[in-house]
């Protein structure tokens, strides 16, 4: 009988649920979350989750280090711990610093969410930062079979890229969303694209917005450059 590694998802919010839905056909999936329960998946304690073969951390960033410290003493040699946070420098440093040396580590950021992946995850991208061990190869192979495109990067380069890709997208979209209701009768193709971007991020939690804008060390300078450019164009016009 072929060995199937057990996978624990710590944090069963909207993204944790998305992970479970797509991974459960491939692996035994367990859930650990004191607030959200899965009706059709086994719910386990934090200690039991730490004893699994693959542990996915899908908790809000303020809970990240406390959870790492709680699971660290219970992790088995050879286990793989991976995160799905929207920033990478901080979580990667925390995992390398707190987790024992016998644990393999992957920092990841799926570049999609429940809204953008509502029709499936095939063709979507995931930022992939192997930090310790070789477990990323077998897990990466599974994700490729599922149709994901793994983009190898470093935590620092990821955050530099996301300062523009996510930071400016959320800044612009959230700002537009605060304006008066927009016309739907007279629109252009470019405006409709902007409206789609607003709709895609509207349901994102305040915690995610804070993570993207405040926890990425490269986001502030990029935001200031953008605002300065906007002010310059406004004065020039």
TrEMBL record:
Protein name: Prephenate dehydrogenase
Domain Prephenate/arogenate dehydrogenase: 5-237
Pfam families on file: PDH_C, PDH_N
Organism the protein comes from: Paracoccus onchidii
Key words, A-Z: Oxidoreductase
Keyword Acetylation: no
